[in-house]
Amino acid sequence: VAYSDYSQFISAGALLAPGQGETVWLINDHPVENIAVSVALPDDASGRSWTVMRKDWEPELKTLAPLPAGREVAIVLPGLSLTTLTT
Prior knowledge:
The chain is mainly beta and 87 residues long.
């Protein structure tokens, strides 16, 4: 996460399975602020496009448009959301 006054509201975790893909979980705990983040993966990451799923204050789980392939992903996290990126 690029440092900002809101960085303390972001939590993240990742599961990297060599040769199988990556999963990254991003949580924004701020009640209203949207926070831009950039996730950098190791050089041996798969380079496949990213599937994005999000759960926020609305009751349903949303599938968002895929993100392009790459070892660095930039995304905006809405307030009070859990975003999952998978390759």
